[in-house]
Amino acid sequence: MSSISMTVNGKSVTGEVEGRTLLSQFLREDLKLTGTHIGCDTSQCGACTVHVNGLAVKGCTMLALEADGADVRTIEGMANDDGSLGVIQAAFKEHHGLQCGFCTPGMVMAADELLKNNTNPSEAEIRKHLSGNICRCTGYHNIIKSIQAAAAQLG
User: Fold this and answer.
1) Same CATH topology for 2-78 and 87-154?
2) CATH number of the domain located at residue range(s) 2-78 in this protein
3) Residue 69: which residues within 8 A CB-CB, separation 6 or more?
4) Domain range summary for the chain, segments of one domain joined by +
5) CATH topology classification for 87-154
6) pLDDT string in tens for the chain (155-residue length)
7) How far is the CA of 54 from the CAs of 8, 117, 145, in angstroms?
């Protein structure tokens, strides 16, 4: 077991993990941040996408030990300080960018990274950026609309 510490959603956390513990497992099982979904464990679906030091990464491809000392943000950290939905989350709700909701946390995290780097992405740019995230309900049309709406609000 190894000791790790990191900042998760603005709070300092510590834990004891085995060397093989994935970041997604640590977040869900140790920190009880279950918004980070585990869909495939093979880096195919993107449901486990979180931000590590500002970059979107798939939590199932990163060991918790690799995040030692990092700043991690999960879907729970996307809400406003008062607990209300953040701009991207609200856009997904308003524009029906979710169906079963399983992919939504990863989509929102990927969209946030995109919009931080490109405040007015084209549909093609959104689709390209989301290529590592799979919606098993095939709700891509409304996901794209949601991200475009969020971009308009944030821009």
Assistant:
1) no
2) 3.10.20.30
3) 5, 6
4) 2-78, 87-154
5) DNA polymerase; domain 1 (1.10.150)
6) 999 999 999 999 999 999 999 999 999 999 999 999 998 878 889 999 999 999 999 999 999 999 999 999 999 999 999 999 999 999 999 999 999 999 999 999 999 999 999 999 999 999 999 999 999 998 899 999 999 999 999 98
7) 12, 11, 24
